[in-house]
Amino acid sequence: MAEVPINGKVLVWARTIRGFSVEQAADLLGVPADELESYESGRQKPLVGFLRNVAAKYKVSFASLLMPDPLPIAKLPTDHRTRADAKPLTINTLVAIEEISEALDAFEDIADEDPRLLPKLRIGTATLDEDPEEVAARERRRFGVSVHDQQQWRDLAGARRHWRRLIEQRGVFTYMLPMPEKELSGFSLLRDSLAAICVNDNETSEGAKIFTLFHEYCHLLLRQTGISDENDNNRVERFCNQFAASFLVPKTALNDAVSGFAMPHEFTDAEVKRLAAHFRVSNRAMALRLERTGLASSGFYGRRTGPWDIPESKEQEPLPAGRTLSYIKIRLKRIGRLHATTVLHAVESRAINSFDAADLIGLKSSSFGRLRAALK
Predict the structure, then answer these.
(1) Residue 316: pLDDT above 50?
(2) 62, 119, 127, 248: which has the highest count of C-beta atoms within 10 A?
């Protein structure tokens, strides 16, 4: 097998964007560290098989390893995580950030061709000096959803779908990508008139995903986007937590739901779960809301964190016997309806070709007809 005359600096670039040290990368690739250093320094040229292994393990395209020079290394979003065990981002998270960043790059190019093909971003603004309760009430009015509407949704999975669609109607692209569960809750990106929210699809429950949607939405309002773990030790994260809980559980409606109790009340697990089901939110969001409104005693959420962290039973609607979820629907859940419709409109308007559209959607162009049907 012939050696490939690549630029060793490109190998360094590929390793660096995935956050690997030489030793970590060599272990992943199954080669000695000094052999990898030899390829990266240019002293030795790798074989095609080695490069294919690099592409697979680093999750980069094979073609990118053949570039004459490395690309600039993009700056990562602001990391708001403050958990004591927060570690460097792993490859799945880095790939997710890269995927959505590249989608926004493509949307910027589409806008240059025809700005009418891109959704208009219609979100408010907020500052950390404001009361998150008031910001939440303001945005709730903007969404036009009553608590009664919220209670009519069948379950948490249905609530998540409704809220996601409403956020996309504000012109925000939403994504649900699987990332390490304890590494982050999600992240958000903002570029002038383009905004994106990504929820970690490995979060423990649909209720947690709903909370993250609005936590990240608040990051967009603050114009302080980045990577989140929803930890109260960070001022921005704390504000976004308070916003999400206030938005999903309006104070007046909560007061009505707990009328009759002497306050502050030491709510039982069953009472918290009943209230959470009433508002179609997670148990954790409800526990946090009860404490922050003074309906539960100070420290209630912290004392009772254990029960709220237990993964809930699967809330997805059962599939009929013999049926499996199609890859098209799985992909649509990953990229969101707004992303899919924007790309389809762009290819129909010839702002991009079908090859680029297929890459953006993650489906062959021959599947576009079925994708359009799934969007109806």
Answers:
(1) no
(2) 248
Angle between helices 22-29 and 48-58 (to 10 degrees): 110
Let me know: does 184 contact 200? Beta carbons within 8 Å.
yes
- Give the CA distances from residue 179 to residues 63, 184, 204, 371, in Å, rounded to whole numbers and listed in that order: 25, 8, 12, 25
pLDDT at residue 42 is higher than 80? yes
DSSP 261: S
Amino acid (one-letter) located at 326: S
Q: Where are the alpha helices (DSSP H) in the chain?
A: 8-17, 22-29, 33-41, 48-58, 91-113, 132-143, 147-152, 156-169, 206-222, 235-248, 251-257, 269-279, 283-292, 300-303, 305-309, 327-335, 337-348, 354-361, 368-375
CA distances from 24 to 28, 30, 140 (A): 6, 10, 47
CB contact set of 331 (below 8 Å; sequence gap of 6+): 361, 362, 363
Sheet holding 194-200: strands in order across? Answer: 172-177, 194-200, 186-191, 227-228
pTM: 0.90
**Residue 363 has which token pair?**
């489906």
Give the whole-angstrom CA distance, residue 197 versus residue 86: 21
Give backbone dihedrals phi and psi of 263, rounded to 5 degrees, phi first: -110, 145
Residue 228, SS3 per DSSP:
strand
What is the per-residue pLDDT across 144-202, written as a single tens digit (0 to 9) for each?
A: 999 999 999 989 999 999 999 999 999 999 999 999 988 999 999 999 899 999 999 99
Note whether 351 and 110 are within 8 A (CB).
yes
